Amino acid sequence: MKQLIDRLKYKNVYTPKLAIARLLLALGMLLFVVSNDMDVVANHNYTHMSRLKTRDLEHASAHLKHTNLFLMIPPAQAKVVIIVILLFVMSGLAPQISGVLHAWACYSVTTYFTVLNGGDKVAWVLSILLLPLCLTDPRWNQWKKKDNTPSNLNVFANVAFFAIQVQAAFVYLDSGISKMFVREWQEGTAIYYYTSDHRLGAPEWLRHINEMTTLTPFVIVLSWGTIVLEILLFTCLFAPARIKSRFLPIALFFHFLIAINFGLITFFFSMAALLILYLDDDNRSVKLLYQHG
Question: Going by C-beta distance under 8 Å and a sequence separation of 6 or more, which residues neighbour residue 245?
Fold first, then answer.
């Protein structure tokens, strides 16, 4: 145990990788907030409850009304505040402050809007898991590098960082295992059914391209390959950094394909942020950033 603690003292996680991940998280939510009409995507159960005066409904919605920005102030003004907060997060400045504001913004958006792509939930959970790292970050600009000096703070930061990686591993484990109990995935035809769905699937031009493979026996490889990839991504939790780094571009490309097939752009940004924190133990994203900076 002492050897482990000593090693963690020297392992610095306060790198610009945190800024990259938080930039992606904020960018995904910013695109959602800016590109959607609040009246169309708002959860009208909440907005209706906030106007009712019965004792039971007031009690049920009290917590939401007192903490959700969109119910505390007029929605149009709240939207502007959310945008400012997200831009603040993207700047990388004062993470000790922006971390708290980011979690609040994610909570407000997730509970006020009816969102179906899951990216909002990932962003909300990840913004909370990032709070310990943001609050204890000794930098006032997360885009700056920190001297790698041993400290007890590094031990705490590594434990908090590992919690994020465990959450990422569980996401892929849960997704992979749950697919095994669905008939379409068992038969190997799921990729065809989902991508060819005229309402939720790929756009027409891409659907025709997809069907060059999804209408062939190769669809079985694609369907079961998805399950295998997700299980392998779970096992990356126990893999060395060099193995994880090889899975990072594969996983990013996997989510890119999901984004273009189903229009889940904000989900892609949330998962890209999570993957960088999960698989980039070698800080290659940071090296690439400073190499071209």
Answer: 279, 280, 281, 282, 284
* C-alpha to C-alpha distance for 72 and 270, rounded to whole angstroms: 26
- The CA angle 185-186-189, to the nearest 5 degrees, is 50
> What beta strand segments (E) does 89-238 contain?
none
119 touches 28 (CB < 8 A) = yes
Q: How many Å apart are CA 259 and CA 25, to the nearest integer?
A: 15
Distance separating alpha carbons of residues 218 and 138, to the nearest angstrom: 51
Long-range CB contact pairs, 40-49, < 8 A, 24+: 41/113, 41/114, 41/115, 42/70, 42/75, 42/112, 42/113, 42/114, 43/111, 43/112, 43/113, 43/114, 46/71, 46/111, 46/112, 47/71
Q: Name every residue whose Cβ is closer than 8 Å to that of residue 277 and which is 6 or more positions away in sequence.
A: 17, 18, 21, 126, 161, 164, 165, 168
Q: What is the pLDDT of residues 120-138, one digit of tens each?
A: 889 999 999 999 999 999 9
Place of tokens 């990356």: 236
Which DSSP letter does residue 138 get? -
Is pLDDT of 58 > 50?
Answer: no
Enter the pTM of the model: 0.89
Q: How many residues does the chain have?
A: 293
Whether the Cβ atoms of residue 137 and residue 18 lie closer than 8 Å to each other:
yes
User: How far is it, in rounded angstroms, from Cα 172 to Cα 233?
Assistant: 6
pLDDT score for 73: 86
Q: Please work out, in degrees rounded to the nearest 5, the angle formed at the alpha carbon of residue 120 by the alpha carbons of 118 and 121.
A: 70
Token pair in block for residue 22: 């938080």
Are the C-beta atoms of 210 and 261 separated by less than 8 Å? yes
